[in-house]
Amino acid sequence: MIEFKDVSLTYPNGHQGLKNVNLKIEQGEMIVVVGLSGAGKSTLIRSINQLVKPTSGELMVDGKNSLAFNERDLRKMRTDIGMIFQSYNLVRRMSVLRNVLSGALGRTSTARSIFGLFKHEDKQLALRSLDRVGIAEKAYSRADQLSGGQQQRVSIARALTQKTKVFLADEPVASLDPPTSHIVMKDLRKINREDNITMIVNLHFIDMAMEYADRIIGMRNGEVVFDGPASEVTEKTFEDIYGRPIKEDDKMSEQDEETTENETASHKEGDSA
Ligand SMILES: Nc1ncnc2c1ncn2[C@@H]1O[C@H](COP(=O)(O)OP(=O)(O)OP(=O)(O)O)[C@@H](O)[C@H]1O
Region labeled Disordered — which residues (predicted)? Predict the structure, then answer.
């Protein structure tokens, strides 16, 4: 279980990224965090594995205050938390399989990892993970030869190979077109259901949030301003969270097909550059 107890985070420039956040997150929950740009969604997600460190309060992970962890405890905690980023964070020149296997580094000795000598069971797990996200046939391709959606699925397979209890996904579909975004979100939800992995996902689009979340956390100016079951959320809830009326841009289904196709095309060009 993860619990925020009165957690605040002030950035070095004095900006308050989180203000007195109180949250309890049970193992296996599927949570989507929403809010306008700058509301503090990334700060909230990243504070869980201390990519950014809260400056006050307690952040309990399995009953221990992670803010008091030393480097060793922190490293151990991070092996239980998989990160999925908007930009995939793959090693582009390496094979897909090698990227996925990097999820097993936390339990591989330095000597073995230098020579890429991963255990047979880890290789099997990596291949199985690629199969679960539907891209087993890409195992031996170079990562940068894959489309954006495929690269994101490699990063999900990497987190699966890490054998984590929690996935933190920071805008995982922000660079993807609508159909590909749905494939990625369906993969995350399937893994959540099948493996009881806690998913905490930042999303921009309110229709995606309502479709895939069990619980929605709404943020504004560093504060949690809504926390409840997705089944109870309406457009009015989002208007309250955002503090303004809902616009077309807030829904993925309303996105201009032409724009998203162009974005995908330029994204692919960027990938192969
Ligand atoms: N390293 C930093 N130093 C100072 N301020 C920061 C830093 N990182 C983020 N902030 C500020 O903290 C606030 C919350 O940022 P955060 O990235 O968490 O928002 P967000 O809701 O994820 O936004 P977006 O949807 O645009 O990614 C913003 O006002 C941002 O400018």
Answer: 240-273
The answer to whether residues 48 and 115 belong to one domain is no
CA of 11 to the centre of ligand 1 (A): 9
Cα separation of 142 and 130, whole Å? 14
| Length reported for the chain | 273
Q: Which of 9, 10, 13, 43 to mutate to test the pocket of ligand 1 (most atoms within 8 A of CB)?
A: 43
Q: List the domain range (segments joined by +) for residue 248.
A: 2-80+168-272
CA–CA distance, 214 with 29 (Å, rounded to integer): 7
End-of-domain residue from the set 119, 136, 163: 163
Number of domains in the chain: 2
pLDDT tens digits for range 55-99 = 999 999 999 999 999 999 999 999 999 999 999 999 999 999 999
pTM: 0.89
Q: Which atom of ligand 1 is nearest to the CA of 204?
A: 25
The two beta strands, 198-202 and 30-34, are parallel
* Last residue of one domain, picked from the residues 110, 143, 163: 163
ipTM score of the complex?
0.96
Shared domain for 67 and 197, answered yes or no, is yes
Nearest residue by C-alpha to atom 7 in ligand 1: 11
